[in-house]
Amino acid sequence: MPMAWSAPYIPGNDSEVLAELPQGVHHSASVQNDQARRSIDVAVPLAQFYINRARATGDLRFLGYAENTLDPWIHKPPVMSRVMVLHATILQSRHDFTDSLKELDEDLKSNPSDGQAWLTRATVLRVLGRYDEALDSCKQMAPHTEPAVATMCEQTVRALTGHLQAAYDSVVNVKFQSAFPDLLAWRCSELGEMASHLGHDEDAERWFREGLSLAPDDFYMRSALADVLLQHDRAAETLQLLAGYETQEPMLLRIALAHDALKDAQGDESRAYLGNAFQVEEQRGEAVHRREQARFLLDVMHQPAAALAAAQEDWKTQREPADILILLRAAQAAHEPGAAKPALKFIQQAHLEDARLDAVKAALQ
Fold it and tell me: What is the CATH T-level fold of the domain 146-215, as seen in this structure?
């Protein structure tokens, strides 16, 4: 996952209206904002629109617009379920996982059949590495959603707990009742990630490219595909893939790595821009890209001690395989094997399988 976005919203049927927004609506459209403060039927789709833009662009300001849109309704008891789940999604996207879970749990006390809340809860718990709880959320969701969605939820957790190949095979065979592009792209994204963990990079590339054909703005898949290309010394293709995404920190990191690999003159510019972007995040108190910052410090700036400090801060917040990988690599580069012990213990306890971790793990043990 990328950044820690929520699981995609799954419409109940083909006729369900997700949003009704005037053409060209944007954050400064005061008429729509005024309407959102008066009508929940405007506020919810407008907030979802902003969240989707944050996902597509990596611009955290859209989360602020979404939060502002929901503000009158999140403070108007009793808070409607759809408002609370959307607000929890915003908190999750800011990496405020504790408060996100609190809101989801509060919603589920009164709405235990809220499948979207269970799915979002499972996603947050998965990011935190709390796999047993995540799996339980998937099971709680199962009676309230289509079987394929429940299978996706369960198998993506099982893939991280010692059942990687079996989970991959299961998701390959998933067939959704409704062929919504977002659903199909979600499946491709998960399959690409599992293939990458298995060390099957050709398959990972195929799945990510198929997913991007369905959801070209998918932030996670584009950066994940860039990582596959970079791993195989395909820097020029990486730059082509990321052209037009130069304002997003995770994308800009891969661009800087590609320029470094090509040893071209634009590397200095990318390094300076990215360093400034991370500094601005720190000043705003929005350091949600700790993982990318650690990788920037390690692989672009070649500052292993600083990279390790950033990776350790990231570890306090989230524990996805990519977070583990950068922590192990930074600990190795900084000659601080003891700093890797919490991650190594986590790998052992979870039975986590990931080909990318194997070589680094062996060097640290």
Answer: 1.25.40
